[in-house]
Write the structure tokens for this entry.
Amino acid sequence: MTEHLMKILIVGDGNVGKSSFVHRYVDGQFNKTYKMTVGVDFSVKLLHWSDKEKVRLQLWDIAGQERFISMTRVYYKGALGCVIMFDVTSPSSFRSCRHWKQDLDNKAMLPNGQSIPCILLANKCDLAQRVVSADSIDRFSKVNGFITWMETSVKENKNIGEAMRRLVQEILSV
Ligand code: GDP
């Protein structure tokens, strides 16, 4: 049995659903008032990937440091994958994804010099007042080098496991 250890970063503006995402994925719950403590470093999830492989995921949620927009290199160190999340009802959170991706590409690199696999998540797709169109997300995702993008709803548990599996699959294939 092989066990892979993967440090995964979860970034994006405040209030887009990052802590809820991690909580849902790791503990299977959605709690409206859930808020991760500032300073908690990471959550762990063990995936039984195949008969021969396990994946131990370390999920690093930036937990309240979003306002600094630019993270320290320590946070990025050793990361093998990244989730960049925005809220489909917030155009400004979508615009910020460009900065998050640039910051990631400037500060983090795989040992082989390639940029870190990164998936773009359009969260809160359960809400009727969504304003960011699928077309613009698609274009943005391609131009900025994301592996792919997906609509998610942490509230309705839509595409959470799927998104993480897609990212892990990409990391294993690098
Ligand atoms: P963070 O600051 O990015 O970590 O965001 P939080 O996880 O604290 O979530 C911010 C708010 O959005 C909370 O009130 C969550 O309950 C809510 N939220 C998170 N995901 C969803 C979702 O998929 N749909 C809806 N409707 N609300 C969500």
